[in-house]
Specification:
heterodimer; A: 474 residues; alpha/beta; D-Maltodextrin-Binding Protein, domain 2; 2 domains; four-stranded mixed beta sheet; globular; B: mainly alpha; MetI-like fold; two-stranded antiparallel ribbon; 73% helix
Chain lengths: 474, 297
């Protein structure tokens, strides 16, 4: 039987509902259901933070050893268990071992770890390789992220574009997509000095590199060396001491771009040679054996009171302010690194970012986020800094009045973090290889086996070879 | 025939395979497969960003043969193996003969003597880094006590660093040679030495014409094992010098590690490892042909 529209009516059923009526009821029911689901979504969005949402889970974290990152997290294992119902297991490996481990777990069918801490210089390789979970949805989800989390406002912008946001499609830092959260420590390079020695000698805190070497020479008296540095065959020779000088002297490390295959180093120019020569001059007023120094030897010498001036990662040398680990804790000050005639001090941007591997089941990712948003939160950031003096990630920690009173270098470290410059070659996966090769050449210059000019020429040749091999330079 | 008898018969017929089967399987899985796999990847390189392997053919091998660091690593490795091995053999054999005299307290001293070889090489490297610290290390402090004012910077002076590395290697592995040779020496028949004494042979002649020939098989055995191990030295370099200063202590093994695990050039590192396998195989085959070993009866 056709209805008035000419359409076939639904066969009448015993209840007498026809097709049109059925469709009307159906449409109404659908509309109600739709409205209900929107209402439910709104309710979910408006739902309060549920810290125990993933209770019963276990989250495994991989960190670097030797930088005190694991200390604060281990202290808070029982707190996380009580608050979130999640068991946390922490593994900390030496840097080299951690980097190797990250490669193997990220390429495995399933990651062994739920949260991994990534060195900033390796981000282009691991995040750029699409191996981490995008975090935007987690951050926006109020049910799993505390409303006080305050991302991104509470983080230095430059740090977000280094160890947080990444444009995987175009393989470059920054953008809208979040893959890491800055943590457990950040850090840049600042200058540490002995207030008492400078004062006794009537020397002002050096503001430029000429003043720095002059001060070091004058302070090199008796058992105290004028300065120290990471002069050994170590990537930090480049990252800490050399780049601080080079960038602050106005040097531009690279020209061109990898994509255009014209990514060329500027290591043999006047600024590069000048910066290496400055290190050679500093080595003459440094402790004996500075040509074999890594972090430990340099910071230990400073903390023992054997050195007057030093550049270092603020997170590494923060222990120099700790009376438990330093003989001169009350006598040291911190300042921005020197600049040059026309350039202010421009330290390198360091830091790490925590991420959730992509090769995990969804449940593990969810539980990982719950733990990660705690250990990248403001409360933990302050705790970690206060107890272990690793550099904070959050502006609120840097600005904390009580912490600034207790650790006078905190403000300086915060300013350094805002001003810091990302190492140009962090853009490409060959970053470590380039830095390692340059470190070897500059180390030979520091120990007197070659001149600054030779070292820079050799490093330039080495870098061009690597960049050509990698296809970044035609 | 019963079922049990059939099984027993099967096992008896395939006794050899049954007994060595598990060992062969282990070798196949943990030795042969990795060897073949790494040979395969030596013709490729891994692109970490794209997450894929790119075929290079002989590209890695060509690059290695034109790489000056490769050639300098060969020199470093050759010096390390050559010098360390010679000194370890001389010192190890001398100690074995010395301790063969069964002096009072020798057992206690022997136990201390072999301690270095049971330490982890990375730990040894780190320990010696501390001992050699120019400012507070024990060695330079002791040198200062005997009146030498400016002792070398052992780990930061290219003139000294390789010899320092070789010295530490000798310190750690001489006990290995000593243990092997001493065990052989202890098993030598006494009557040969008694006859020599009765005949009026001096101690030096006994050592030269009787002791050394009789222990030569043990010496060669220990030297070959030690030589192969020394050729592969990586952990001591890692702990003590990290291949520096510059490339002064970069051995082939360390260079392979650096490329594979620091720079993630897995293909290049595998190719380098294969070149090392070829070098070691040729080297030690020639050595075995060249060294005459007296069979002792």
């Amino acid at each position: 039987m056709k209805d008035t529209n000419g359409e076939n009516a639904v066969d009448s059923i015993d209840s007498g509902v026809n097709r049109r009526d059925f469709l009307k009821v159906g449409a109404t029911a659908a509309a109600v259901a739709g409205a209900s689901s929107v209402g439910m979504a709104e309710s979910a969005t408006a739902a309060s933070y549920n810290p125990k949402k993933f209770a019963g889970s276990t989250v495994k974290i991989l960190l670097v050893d030797g930088e005190r990152d694991q200390n604060g997290i281990k202290d808070k294992i029982s707190y996380i268990k009580k608050t979130h119902g999640i068991t946390v297991e922490v593994t900390a490996l030496a840097l080299g071992a951690e980097l190797e481990k990250i490669q193997s777990v990220l390429h495995a069918p399933t990651s062994e770890y739920d949260i991994i801490d990534n060195l900033g210089f390796t981000v282009s390789g691991v995040v750029g390789g699409g191996l981490y979970t995008k975090l935007n949805d987690y951050i926006a989800n109020k049910e799993v992220t505390d409303s006080t989390y305050n991302y991104p406002a509470d983080f230095p912008e430059g740090q977000l574009d280094y160890t947080s946001r990444y444009d995987v499609a175009n393989n470059k830092f920054g953008g809208k997509d979040v893959y890491l959260i800055p943590g457990v420590h950040s850090g840049s390079v600042i200058m540490f000095y002995r207030k008492d020695l400078l004062s006794a000698a009537g020397i002002a805190v050096p503001k430029n590199w000429d003043d720095y070497i002059d001060a070091a020479r004058k302070l090199n008296v008796g058992s105290v060396s004028g300065t120290s540095m990471i002069g050994g065959n170590d990537v930090s020779l480049i990252l800490v001491d050399w780049y601080a000088r080079f960038a602050s002297m106005g040097g531009k490390l690279m020209s061109g771009t990898p994509g255009a295959k014209n990514y060329k180093p500027n290591l043999s120019g006047a600024t590069a040679v000048r910066s290496v020569q400055h290190m050679i001059d500093c080595a003459e007023v440094s402790p004996k054996g500075v040509g074999s120094f890594g972090f430990t030897e340099s910071v230990d010498a400073f903390s023992r009171g054997d050195v007057a001036l030093m550049l270092c990662w603020s997170t590494i040398a923060g222990s120099a302010f700790n009376t438990a680990t330093s003989k001169v804790a009350s006598k040291i000050g911190a300042a921005q690194i020197p600049g040059d005639a026309n350039t202010s001090g421009r330290p390198i941007r360091g830091g790490w970012g925590l991420g959730i591997p992509k090769n995990l089941p969804q449940k593990r990712k969810d539980a990982a986020w719950m733990v990660m948003q705690y250990i990248t939160g403001a409360a933990f950031d302050s705790y970690q800094f206060d107890n272990y003096q690793t550099d904070p990630n959050r502006r609120s920690t840097y600005a904390n009045a009580a912490l600034n009173k207790k650790y006078p270098y905190l403000k300086v470290a915060g300013q350094a973090m805002e001003n810091a410059k990302m190492l140009d070659v962090a853009l490409i996966p060959e970053c470590f290889e380039l830095v390692g090769e340059a470190a070897r050449e500059f180390n030979l210059a520091i120990i007197g086996s070659q001149t600054a000019k030779q070292a820079c020429a050799n490093a330039q040749a080495s870098w061009e070879k690597i960049l050509k091999r990698a296809g970044h330079l035609a | 025939m019963s079922k049990t008898t059939k099984s027993e018969s099967f096992l008896l017929r395939h006794e050899t395979k049954t007994l060595i089967g598990p060992a062969l399987l282990y070798l196949a899985v943990f030795s042969v497969f990795p060897l073949l796999y790494s040979l395969g990847i030596s013709f490729f390189e891994f692109d970490r960003v794209a997450g894929k392997w790119n075929f290079l053919g002989l590209g890695n091998y060509k690059e290695i043969l034109s790489d000056k660091v490769f050639w300098s690593s060969i020199v470093v490795t050759a010096l390390m193996v050559g010098v360390a091995l010679i000194v370890e053999v001389i010192a190890g054999v001398s100690l074995a003969i010395f301790f063969g005299q069964k002096l009072k307290g020798s057992k206690f001293v022997r136990a201390i003597l072999i301690t270095p070889m049971i330490l982890n090489p990375v730990v040894v490297g780190l320990m010696w880094r501390a001992l050699l610290n120019p400012q507070w290390g024990l060695l330079n402090w002791f040198i200062g006590l005997i009146g030498i004012d400016n002792p070398p910077i052992w780990l930061a002076d290219p003139k000294w660093t390789l010899w320092t590395l070789i010295f530490v290697d000798i310190w750690q592995w001489t006990p290995f040679i000593f243990v092997v040779v001493f065990a052989r020496y202890q098993a030598l028949p006494i009557d040969v030495f008694e006859s020599a004494r009765v005949d009026g042979a001096s101690p030096l002649k006994v050592i030269r014409y009787i002791t050394l020939p009789l222990v030569s098989s043990a010496v060669v055995f220990a030297a070959i094992f030690r030589g192969i191990d020394s050729f592969r030295t990586f952990d001591l370099v890692y702990g003590l010098t990290f291949g520096g200063p510059g490339r002064a202590t970069t051995t082939l093994s360390f260079y392979s590690f650096e490329n594979g695990f620091v720079y993630y050039r897995y293909g290049f590192s595998s190719a380098l490892s294969y070149i090392m396998v070829i070098m070691a195989t040729i080297g030690f085959t020639l050595l075995l042909k060249w060294i005459p070993v007296r069979r002792s009866h």
